[in-house]
What does this fold into?
Amino acid sequence: MSGKGKKSSGQQLKPEPEAQTNPYADTLKRLRDAFNSGRTQPAEFRVSQLRGLSRFLKENRKLLLDTLAQDLNKPTFEADISEIVLCESEIRLALKNLDAWMKDERVEKNLATQLDSAFIRKEPYGVTLIIAPWNYPLNLLLVPLVGAVAAGNCVVLKPSEMSKGMEKVIAEVLPQYLDKNCFATVLGGPEEATILLKNKFDYIFFTGSPRVGQIVMAAASKYLTPLTLELGGKNPCYVDDNCDPQNVANRVAWFRFFNAGQTCVAPDYILCSRETQEKLLPALQRAVTQFYGKDPQSSPDLARIINNKHFHRLCGLLGNGRAAIGGQSDEQERYIAPTVLVDVKETDPVMQEEIFGPILPILNVQSVEEAIAFIRKREKPLALYAFSNDSKVVNKVLDETSSGSFGGNNGFMFMTITSMPFGGIGHSGMGQYHGKFTFDTFSHLRGCILCSPRLEIINKIRYPPYSPGRQRLLVWLLEHKLGLPCSIL
It folds into this structure.
């Protein structure tokens, strides 16, 4: 699972910290020296570190589940599926395919280069930085780490200080399974993260809010550091009149209230007609009761809000429109009931920011065309959903909108498919990862051509003095391909 929204990765960064020293200089030098020594390059080293990550998950499974329960009251089911199992899947995929991923990739050549060897080499960037948020504090740290390790990089990990228990586990337990010369963990909050970002990295991978993403991007620009930004946004969910209200309610409720709504790809609001709303509300109430009982607060399957700051922010949003379902809260437990808001206006605060909690507003539209127009005039979302019994309606929404990912009659199950890329577009982020896409993200694709030092006579066509005949011949050679593998090297 992924999540950004109001989580801000726990990094409420200050653009200009009052730091006169660089406490991370020695750590970064140690990692850079290790990388420059070639230590991380061999496949054997990468495999050993990936196996170390696998042992970390297996040997500390109970500790990780207990810690996630401590930080977010995550049900074991949700924590296991969204945090541990998905990480294990990424590691298995990398171990199975590492040799193939690392191999030079031969490319098609034109006739002018048929006697040369042309290929793409996958090179690690060097010393990389991964900044993770608090809502899926294990998944959103380890999944990028798997790709960075597989690609042969050294890595600095910055877990969120807001998920205090998991931050401690990452700092104290994870290093026992990795090469300490090649990996390091930096702790702390906004001040420490801001100072850390003043250092030069070869690649930065950030998961967090768009606001903090702008600060990270500004810091990266000082050194022209390439980066991936996994950000958030308001994910629309269109529900067509032609649908089964209960099926839609079951699916939307699970995806919306999973992890108490603290998921960046959760449906953030519903667009539907008033007639469909009237059918959907009782179906959503039945789904909430079926999932969490008549008293959701006592359910062991509903997570809690990360801290008091986010709890109070969400309580402020409960006053928007009218709570047709839920609306209750308990500050002592940081509990907010699964809530559905109706009579919401586009200008209400709940529609101006990513909610990142168990609150689902419904806005009314009269047609799929009106829904598409509403979606298109806002920032491109990280995910977009459409529900209809008519495949033409689902495909119309898909064809006429843009988003990081799309789910037709489904929620964020695309997050479990390692063969698909995941990432935002525009305001919701840049860059992609998951599976081989993470390996590619942390690899520089180096175009290479190797030529013979002999056979200079072949090259004479390129040299002055130029002539129209030589020009025509060279153009023809550049535009045509033989289609046969040929190399003199």
Notes: Residues 371 and 473 are 56 Å apart (CA to CA). The two ends are 46 Å apart (CA to CA).
